[in-house]
Automatic annotation (TrEMBL), chain A:
It comes from Ambrosia artemisiifolia. Pfam families: Sec1. Its main location: membrane. It comes from the Eukaryota. Keywords: Membrane, Protein transport, Transport. It is found in: Endomembrane system. It is a peripheral membrane protein. GO terms for biological process: intracellular protein transport; regulation of vesicle fusion; vesicle-mediated transport. The lineage of its organism: Eukaryota, Viridiplantae, Streptophyta, Embryophyta, Tracheophyta. This is Vacuolar protein sorting-associated protein 45 homolog. One of its GO terms (cellular component) is bounding membrane of organelle. Belongs to the STXBP/unc-18/SEC1 family.
Automatic annotation (TrEMBL), chain B:
One of its GO terms (molecular function) is SNARE binding. Pfam families: SNARE. Residues 192-223 form the T-SNARE coiled-coil homology domain. InterPro entries: SNARE, Syntaxin, Syntaxin_N, T_SNARE_dom. The chain crosses the membrane at residues 231-252. Keywords: Coiled coil, Golgi apparatus, Membrane, Protein transport, Transmembrane, Transmembrane helix, Transport. It comes from the Eukaryota. This is t-SNARE coiled-coil homology domain-containing protein. One of its GO terms (biological process) is vesicle docking. Its main location: Golgi. It comes from Ambrosia artemisiifolia (Common ragweed).
């Protein structure tokens, strides 16, 4: 039940039954789906000798009948149009069409109509419609989804296609796992409600046959939540490895582009950071920054040992051994230098932007009370020349979210200060955040001050003290997960869709929920 | 890992549309639409031939291109080269398996000096290296211009074949070195092995000696017995003779007196 391996299985099944030389044709989205789980050399082993995008394959007219085409596309109307044109003048020996999601009858008709030469061998739906970046973590790569928060955009046609993409992605996940979930959503969010209802309609009505899998004792839970329930987490600086790289440099489809950070040699410009292919990263992706330094030191020491033994070549046997081990050695060298580069670059950024200092105040704002002290700390940081504009903005936002109701006057002072220190931000930005994700709009108990129990828990934690001031904040999601595991997630705040939940209502598959919940945080 | 096969429905639609389309364009497309499945079969045959054909059969490309020319364009020449290399790799792989067997056989303790095995191993190794070398030479032919797509494919084919060849040659090297290592080890403990048999033989001899001692004792006893028995007979004979003599004397005494 792991995302990465299920996508890999889908691709294996696509390629294994087609013998001979193949060309794999992808679209801009499936190229991410495939490339996060499969490597070029693995494709070569399956006799895939050319990988092309569907829009560029139509540029060339030259016939390649010695190749068999394997299309793996999302069932979008543009892709169907591309296919229609390409089937009219077939270039390849045969066409095997795989779609990452459900085709509708019209699309099938169009394809059948355009296949006059009868070159299509098969039409299949293989539900790998998500980018499986980690074993338990996927993304749908929907860029600029914050657009739907803008007040001018009320109900653009784009919203529908955006919503469809998310529903498709969720449906594909559950089809890949052969499960049909119970669906809940966060009450205050319209978009969450819409996605939950559409997913439910798809799974229980339109395609109920497809989703009719063998019932398991525990049905998985699909919980659709809205990022606006927890605006704090993304505003904090992170201190674990993967999160830091993503925050400070940026990870896209498990690739890190170092071009923006500094000058590097060509092979170091873009590096792969995948927990599946890199054992060191897998072991350290959730480790604290400090610990990573230690672990990297150890890795470098190990490497030096190997390098030393490689220098010491005296007999012919040593030479043979060296030649045999050289590829492994090169791989190790590449990996070591990759991690060293990343950590070095990040330490530079941390130093430059005074992130330790900033982060401490951020965590105070997110976790502890004490408005007076907080105001003073934020003001000091706003005055500090080394603190970057973006961090100033985030500090003011964090302060505003926390003390929205308590101190409007001091909040105004901070707004003014921010406007004078970092004039590049529009003045209404923080107010817009409050309007979108303020206390009135949120579902969960973000600061743990709404009910007595949470309040008491917070107090207890405060008395116990924290291990690490930089990582004391726990995202709201963590609390939500705990409530799910204990069967205490409130029906009022997170209502069910439909009445498919009688069986096993209090037995929730925690892991499943975690996966879905994590991925859905991308939703607005 | 659910999947849904839409091919049957797609075929149904396609066939339905074909029957709609056929009457209107009957004259022009009757041959092509009528022989649709035949063409498909021919295609399938062509591809099968292509993927399996070994460089030995020189007629294959000719015949396949004849049937293929009607439906699909001729594949570029480099495809033949790559097929040839693939064939070589396959054969080398088969030979490699044979070689592994031969190694195992040669390492087994056996009578005779195993010269035959040695010859076989040498021959196989030679053949494999030869195949690899030939393939490598051919591989170089693959890399020549063409359109960007085509040259891309060529590059990839070359890469994949090169990886195959590389792994094969590494495998061969490893096999050889382990074989040699084991052969050496065997030479070292051949001595121990033969000592073992000597020890074994001593043991065997000790048993033999014991058995013959037993036998000798028995013989001695028998001899003794027979010796004893011989004295008695002598005694009896002497007595009988004595009796006879006495009897004669007695008769003589009676007659004379």
């Amino acid at each position: 039940m792991v995302l990465v391996s299920s996508v890999r299985d889908y691709i294996n099944r696509m390629l294994q039954d087609i013998s001979g030389m193949k060309v794999l044709i992808l679209d801009s989205q499936t190229v991410s789906v495939v490339s996060v789980v499969y490597s070029q050399s693995e494709l070569l082993q399956k006799e895939v000798f050319l990988v092309e995008l569907v829009d560029s394959i139509s540029m060339s007219k030259e016939s390649m009948s010695h190749l068999k085409a394997v299309y793996f596309l999302r069932p979008t109307s543009e892709n169907i149009q591309h296919l229609k044109r390409q089937l009219a003048k077939p270039r390849f020996g045969e066409y095997n069409l795989f779609f990452s999601n459900m085709l509708n009858t019209t699309q099938l008709h169009i394809l059948a109509d355009s296949d006059e030469h009868e070159v299509v061998q098969q039409v299949q739906e293989f539900f790998a419609d998500f980018v499986a970046i980690d074993p338990y973590h996927f993304t749908l790569n929907t860029p600029s989804n914050h657009m739907y928060m803008l007040p001018a955009v009320i109900d653009p046609p784009n919203l529908q296609s955006y919503c469809d993409r998310i529903v498709d992605g969720i449906a594909a996940i559950f089809l890949a796992f052969k499960r049909r979930p119970v669906i809940r959503y966060s009450r205050t969010s319209d978009i969450a409600k819409r996605i939950a209802h559409e997913a439910s309609k798809l799974m229980y009505q339109q395609e109920s046959g497809l989703f009719d899998f063998r019932r398991t004792e525990i049905s998985p839970l699909l919980l659709v939540i809205d990022r606006r329930d927890d605006p704090v987490t993304p505003l904090l600086n992170q201190w674990t490895y993967q999160a830091m790289v993503h925050e400070l440099i940026g990870i896209k489809d498990n690739k890190v582009d170092l071009g923006n950070v500094g000058k590097f040699s060509k092979d170091q410009q873009e590096v792969v950071l995948s927990s599946e292919q890199d054992a060191f990263f897998k072991a350290n992706m959730y480790e604290n920054f400090g610990d990573i330094g230690m672990n990297i030191k150890r890795m470098v020491d190990d490497f030096q040992q190997v390098a030393k033994s490689n220098q010491n070549i005296q007999t012919i046997e040593d030479m043979a051994k060296f030649v045999d081990n050289y590829p492994e050695y090169r791989k190790m060298q590449g990996n070591v230098s990759k991690h060293v580069t990343l950590v070095t670059e990040m330490s530079k950024i941390v130093e430059e932007r005074k992130l330790m200092l900033v982060s401490q105040t951020e965590q105070e704002l997110a976790c502890n009370g004490g408005q007076g002290a907080a105001f003073e700390a934020v003001t000091n940081l706003l005055n500090n020349e080394s603190v970057s504009d973006i961090d100033r903005l985030r500090l003011v936002m964090l302060y505003a979210l926390r003390y929205e109701k308590e101190s409007p006057v001091q909040l105004m002072q901070l707004f003014n200060k921010l406007a004078s220190r970092s004039p590049k931000y529009k003045p209404g930005l923080v107010q817009f955040l409050l309007k979108q994700a303020g206390a009135d709009r949120r579902t969960g108990d973000l600061y743990g001050n709404r009910d007595i129990l949470n309040f008491a828990r917070n107090m207890a934690r405060g008395l116990k003290g924290v291990e690490n001031v930089y990582t004391q904040h726990q995202p709201l999601l963590f609390q939500t997960m705990e409530s799910i595991a204990k069967g205490r997630l409130r029906d009022v705040d997170y209502p069910f869709v439909g009445n498919h939940f009688q069986q096993g209502r209090f037995l929730k598959d925690l892991e499943e929920a975690q996966r879905i919940a994590r991925s859905s945080t991308g939703v607005v | 890992m659910a999947t849904r096969n839409r091919t049957p429905l797609f075929r149904k639609y396609r066939d339905a549309l074909k029957s709609v389309r056929a009457p209107s364009t009957f004259a022009s497309s009757s041959s092509s639409s009528g022989s649709g499945p035949v063409i498909e079969l021919a295609n399938a045959g062509l591809f099968k031939q292509n993927s399996n054909y070994a460089p030995l059969s020189t007629e294959d490309p000719g015949t396949s291109s004849n049937t293929g020319a009607l439906t699909v364009g001729l594949p570029p020449a480099w495809v033949d080269v790559s097929d040839e290399i693939t064939g070589n790799v396959q054969r080398a792989r088969a030979k490699m398996a044979e070689l592994a067997k031969a190694h195992a056989k040669a390492l087994m303790p056996s009578f005779g000096d195993g010269r035959e095995d040695q010859h076989r191993i040498e021959g196989l190794t030679h053949e494999i290296t030869d195949l690899l070398r030939k393939s490598e030479k051919k591989l170089k032919k693959l890399s020549a211009g063409g359109t960007s797509e085509d040259s891309n494919i060529r590059k990839n084919v070359q890469r994949s074949l090169a990886t195959d060849l590389q792994s094969l040659s590494v495998e061969l090297r490893k096999k050889q070195s382990t074989y040699l290592k084991r052969l050496q080890q065997q030479k070292e403990y051949k001595f121990i092995n033969s000592t073992g048999t000597i020890v074994d033989r001593i043991d065997h001899n000790i048993q033999n000696v014991a058995a013959s001692v037993d036998e000798g004792l028995k013989q001695l006893q028998k001899a003794e017995r027979s010796q004893k028995r011989g004295g008695m007979i002598m005694c009896a004979t002497v007595l009988v003779i004595m009796c006879f003599v006495m009897l004669v004397l007695l008769i003589l005494k009676e007659i004379l007196f």
